[in-house]
Specification:
The complex is a heterodimer of chains A (171) and B (191).
Chain A lengths: L1 H41 L7 E2 L17 E9 L5 E6 L6 E6 L5 E6 H4 L3 E7 L8 E3 L4 E9 L5 H12 L2 E2 L1
Chain B lengths: L1 H35 L5 E3 L2 E3 L8 H10 L9 E6 L13 E5 L5 E10 L13 E3 L9 E4 L7 E3 L6 E10 L1 H5 L8 E5 L2
Parallel strand pairs in B: 7-8
Antiparallel strand pairs in B: 1-2, 2-3, 3-9, 4-7, 4-10, 5-6, 5-9
Helix pairs in contact in B: 1-2
Classes of the chains: A alpha+beta (171), B alpha+beta (191).
C-alpha cells in the first residue's frame, strides 16, 4: 500500500514538473519553430537582415500578417559583437523598430515620431555605454522587426518604400 | 531481491515517461482551452483584444505566444479581433456584412480579413484591407465574396473568417477604456 502511495505521489510530482516545464517552454518552442522556418525558407542567418515584400494571401511565415506593412526582420546574436543598424527611413509615414526576446516578449519599440529623424542609426549591445543611440539588450539572442507602413498601394509608392527598406543594413 | 529490483527498474522509468506525457498533455490542453475561451482577452461586444503585453507569468506568456507572436505594446498598436457578427453568428463568406460606426481614435487604422487558419483571405484582386488611406468616406465598408464598387473587403470562399481592426498609436482614452469604448458593428446584410 505504501509503495502504491509512493508511486502515485511520484507520478503527481513528476507530472507537475513536466506541466511547468511545458508551460515555460511553449513560447520558446513557438520562437524556435519560427526561427527554423524563416532560416530555412528565407535563407537568412543570425545577424543578417531579410526584407520582406508586402504580405499577400500566399504568405505563410507568420499568422495574421499586416498587408499594409513592409517588414524587415533579423535574428540577432550579440555573443560575439555589438550590432549597428542603419538605414534611410520614410519621413511621412509610420515606421517602427521593435525587439523581442526568444520567449516572444516585446522589450523595445520606438516609432518614427519618437526617433525624430528619418536617419536610422542604432547600436545594439549587451552593455550600456550611455551613448544616445545605444540600446542595451536584456538578452544575448533575440529578434528584430522593422515595420514600414505603405499607405498607398500604387506601384510608385511601393517601389519608393521598398528602396528605403533596402537601405536598412545590420553590421 | 533481484526480481524486486527488476520491477523497480521497469516501474520508475515508466512512471517518469507517463508523468511527463501527462504534464505535457494537461499543459497544452489548458493553454488551448484558455485560447478557445479568450481567457485573458478583454471583451467589448463581439470584439476581443489582448493588450496585456506586460505579462505576469509563464502561463500568460504561453497563451500570448499561441494567439499571436511579435505583436506590439498597447501604446504602439491595438489589435481588435472579431469572428462574429452583431447577432453573435460566425462570420462566413456565405453572407455579406457591413461595418458601421467609426474606428476608435488613433494615428492609423485598418480592417483586415483572415481565414479560419489566420492567414490572409485568398482573393484574386489583392485587396486585403480597408484603411485610413483607401477608405472612401460616405460609403459603408462591405465584406462580400462578390465585387463591390467602394470600400470592398473580399471574403473569398472562407466558410469562417476573422476580422482584425488594427489601431496604431491609439489615443490614451482608447487603451485605458478597452472594455467600454464604442467599437464598430459588423452587421449581416442581404447578399
Amino acid at each position: 500500500m505504501k509503495k502504491i502511495f509512493f508511486y502515485l505521489l511520484f507520478l503527481l510530482l513528476m507530472s507537475f514538473v513536466s506541466y511547468q516545464l511545458t508551460i515555460n517552454y511553449i513560447p520558446k518552442l513557438v520562437y524556435e519553430v519560427f526561427h527554423y522556418k524563416i532560416e530555412k525558407n528565407q535563407n537568412i542567418k543570425d545577424n543578417e537582415i531579410k526584407h520582406f515584400d508586402i504580405p499577400s494571401d500566399q504568405s505563410r511565415d507568420v499568422v495574421m500578417p499586416n498587408p499594409d506593412f513592409l517588414y524587415s526582420v533579423s535574428f540577432y546574436d550579440l555573443s560575439k559583437k555589438d550590432l549597428n543598424l542603419k538605414g534611410n527611413m520614410p519621413d511621412s509615414t509610420y515606421w517602427s523598430v521593435s525587439f523581442y526576446k526568444p520567449n516572444t516578449i516585446n522589450w523595445y519599440v520606438k516609432n518614427d515620431q519618437e526617433f525624430n529623424t528619418n536617419k536610422l542609426d542604432l547600436k545594439l549591445s549587451l552593455n550600456n555605454n550611455l551613448k544616445e543611440n545605444t540600446i542595451q539588450s536584456p538578452v544575448e539572442k533575440g529578434f528584430m522587426i522593422i515595420r514600414i507602413l505603405v499607405e498607398k498601394k500604387d506601384k510608385e509608392s511601393i517601389d519608393y518604400y521598398k528602396s528605403l527598406q533596402k537601405s536598412i543594413v545590420i553590421k | 531481491m533481484k526480481s524486486l529490483f527488476k520491477i523497480k527498474l521497469i516501474i520508475i522509468p515508466t512512471l517518469i515517461i507517463v508523468s511527463f506525457l501527462i504534464g505535457i498533455f494537461v499543459a497544452v490542453s489548458n493553454i488551448n482551452s484558455s485560447v478557445q475561451n479568450n481567457e485573458f482577452s478583454i471583451k467589448n461586444g463581439n470584439w476581443i483584444v489582448n493588450p496585456n503585453m506586460d505579462l505576469q507569468n509563464n502561463f500568460q506568456r504561453a497563451y500570448v505566444s499561441r494567439i499571436g507572436v511579435f505583436a506590439l505594446d498597447e501604446k504602439e498598436a491595438i489589435y481588435f479581433l472579431s469572428s462574429k457578427d452583431n447577432m453573435g453568428k460566425n462570420l462566413s463568406s456565405d453572407f455579406d456584412y457591413e461595418i458601421t460606426g467609426n474606428p476608435p481614435a488613433g494615428r492609423y487604422w485598418s480592417y483586415t480579413l483572415y481565414g479560419e487558419d489566420y492567414y490572409l483571405v485568398n482573393n484574386k484582386t489583392d485587396v486585403y484591407t480597408i484603411n485610413k488611406e483607401n477608405f472612401e468616406k460616405n460609403y459603408p465598408i462591405t465584406i462580400s465574396s462578390s465585387r463591390k464598387n467602394s470600400n470592398w473587403l473580399p471574403s473569398g470562399n472562407e466558410k469562417q473568417f476573422h476580422i482584425t481592426l488594427r489601431l496604431y498609436n491609439p489615443d490614451k482614452e482608447v487603451y485605458i477604456n478597452l472594455d467600454s469604448i464604442e467599437l464598430p458593428l459588423i452587421k449581416r446584410i442581404e447578399k
